[in-house]
Amino acid sequence: MDKKKKENITPFTPDQQALLEKYLVTGTADYSLSKFVPHPKGNLGTEKKDTSATGKHNAFLTGRITPLAPDYWHQDMDNDSPVNLTTPENFDYLYRSASRYAELMGIKLPFRYRKGGCPRLNITELYRVMEECVPECINLEKKDGRLHFCLFRHHDWPEPTLFWIPVDFTERLSASLKNIVREFIRLFVRHHRLYDITETFCYDFAIEELEDWGNRDSDASPKEVRANKRLADSYQSGKRMKALRRMSGKPFCKSLEEAVRNYRTKKEKELKLLELIEDGMALITPESPVLTGYQYDWAYEEECDFPPVGMESQVILVYSADDTLAECVKGYMNSDYQETYALTPVTYKLLTPETDSLFQMDDYPERLSRWLVCFTGYIDDNF
To answer: Any residues with CB less than 8 A from the CB of 146 and at least 6 apart, and which?
Structure first.
């Protein structure tokens, strides 16, 4: 990103930062994230550091290279057979891609093309040259049987933070305002293709914990055991299940813009909520990016003990952000945060010999996260 582009990404205001610190996923004493240590990304944000975040999937680049070093083999997902990626054809493709990008940068690629030799050594040397030439982070990625250079940069995104959008608070609103808020949330979830909490990877574990509460907590009272069993039933076949499913159904009003414009109120809390909704509507226009389009696992491993925490778990629709099931899900996610890293928005670009533009990134994730801090924080404080 050039300096002019960086200046367009404004930081959090003091008020937003205070909200952010308040709504970091700290959970309860049992579910604390106070010991969270971010995964060593190597290159974070908009600045490139000295160490490249190649990730273990490019491990053949990270060790000491010897003349007799083995080729890099990749497991083919179609026929389950190993495929050698360090071929002369892949080196040629990478070289032409690098040369094209250097041309776009207005520089001469400082690499001497030598025919023959070890493709792996050639690829490794070309990678090191590109790492020195480009201001972005760089990986090697496999796509369509070819190796590609992939340029990427991390957006400024609060981590670790769960932006869980609840619907239970709307039950305490007037009928007209309730429909407005629910319609906005429905459109927001649809635009960003968000999951609801029942679709997260640890939902089933949380349900099992609720149903087995008496055996898991010897100090639990019979009343508490029954309450958690009813809560599990509500998520599986009752009120909470129906409320979450309804959010993916038909509209709550014909025109959200018209409904917001025509709603009359003198209550300060409602006016502020409507203001936040109007700000959020500007983030989900037909031209607005989709959050999942920024998901890129810069440190992907084919076989890993703990997969990263994806954005599909960090920004989701929930019935309640603080009922016992939600706390259970947070607990499982906290455990994962201790073992792995979170995927946060990344802009990335695969290079080809036909690439016709330089790497660019916008500030949409930054604007979205600032709005999410304000929206979820305001709901929690006022409803």
So the answer is: 90, 93
The 3-class SS string of 263-315 reads: CCCCCHHHHHHHHHHHHHHCCCCCCCCCHHHHCCCCCCCCCCCCCCECHHHHE
Ramachandran assignment for 45, one of left (phi > 0), alpha (psi -120 to 50 degrees), beta (any other): left
Q: What is the pLDDT of residues 260-308, one digit of tens each?
A: 999 999 999 999 999 999 999 999 999 999 999 999 999 988 778 889 9
Closest-CA residue to 150 (of 194, 188, 187, 97): 97
Q: Please count the helices (runs of H) and the strands (runs of E) in the chain.
A: 15, 7
pLDDT, tens only, 219-259:
999 999 999 999 999 999 999 999 999 999 999 999 999 99
pTM of the model: 0.81
Tokens linked to 219: 């100090």
CA distances from 47 to 5, 38, 40, 60, 309 (A): 12, 17, 15, 25, 23
